[in-house]
Amino acid sequence: MNIQWANGVSGMDNPAVNDVLKIIQRNDIISFAGGLPSARSFPIKELAAAFHSTLLEEGAAALQYGVANGYEPLRSWVAERLQKQGIDCKPGNIIITNGSQQVLDLACRLLVNPGDAIAVENPTYLAAIQVFKGAQANILPVPVDAYGMNIDELAKVLQREKPKFIYVNPTFQNPTGVTMTVERRQQLAQLAAKYQVPVVEDNPYGELRYDGTPVPPIKSFPGGEWVLYAGTISKIVAPGLRIGWMAAGEEFIAKMASAKQISDVLTNSLTQRALYRYLCNHDIDNHIGTIVAQYKEQRDSMLEAMKAFFPAEVTWTIPDGGMFIWATLPENIDTTKLLPEAIKEKVAFVPGAPFYSDDTGQSHNTMRLNFSNSTPDMIYEGMERLGRLLKAHVR
Ligand code: PMP
């Protein structure tokens, strides 16, 4: 069939990543490639009880249409939680979305015309790149170092161009695991206000902290009214629920609700209510504590195994939280070419290239390693296999 696709469609696909995701579903492979939370942490019985009682006790409302902004008690729960993290907000500043992924898509619908610019960390979350390319945006890469997005470089970009927004994943970033410093957060909020450019602060991993002290969200600093804050239940309860949220000024929330209305009318009413019940009946912080203890052990196992099995020429980030470690290999190793060899050895990772939005070629020798979905034993075994392969390639 000769289908005439719309202009943005070619940017939505990432065949390399689709291939990796297919391969890692083979259960003979130890995969550090996905970004899946551990299924061991899902509160299955508790959610079953919450769904059951929601249907029995408020079935008619739970099965009915509702407002696009989301279930009010859940919005209040989110607002209260964000207030504790220093974000000044009320339920009217919250919209419930189908995961935080939908925030990125709807933000593009509201702000981006084809050819408009969006500034991003380089590297960044690859599904964000896909959304932005789908919106036919011109992506402006800003380098990331051990302290997060380089704000001096961002300032240079803002002097030259006016992006429609700045996208950042400042805490335990996907893919690098790095966290933006307090000073840079402050500077970023100031720059947003000075240049009147919104920031989309995407924070799915912030509550998964294993070391150090929490860093306040960018939205909590002066200038924070320019920040659209995206959060999610995916990494602290379960991603299959598809519940996320955005916190923003009321004007933006109203436009977002219109965009959501035309996109999917509203987020699943039954799930919103059942999740709210679950949150009321259980101590979520205690549950997060269990996840944190598990992932910390897995992160430590991965770091230990890297030290033991990787050649000395390889360097890597040491994330204080989240789900990812980012490794940089010697220049002569191209991780995209290395992957098929790794799969033969029954271990997988994601090559770094798709996380970069430019083609400068700096990305070929990096890889993302996920530790949330493998036990310590699997991590040691997989890292030993990968280490052996790397040693064979180091010159
Ligand atoms: N942003 C980032 C940085 C992510 O890593 C993810 C999930 N992998 C998402 C957004 C989307 O999460 P969800 O839609 O499940 O909330």
Automatic annotation (TrEMBL):
Gene Ontology molecular function terms on file: pyridoxal phosphate binding; transaminase activity
Record key words, sorted: Aminotransferase, Pyridoxal phosphate, Transferase
SUPFAM superfamilies (UniProt xref): PLP-dependent transferases (SSF53383)
Domain Aminotransferase class I/classII large residues, every copy: 41-386
GO terms classed as biological process: alpha-amino acid metabolic process
Superkingdom of this protein's organism: Bacteria
Name this polypeptide is given: 2-aminoadipate transaminase
Organism: Anaerospora hongkongensis
Complex and partners: Homodimer.
Sequence similarity: Belongs to the class-I pyridoxal-phosphate-dependent aminotransferase family.
Cofactor(s) named in the record: pyridoxal 5'-phosphate
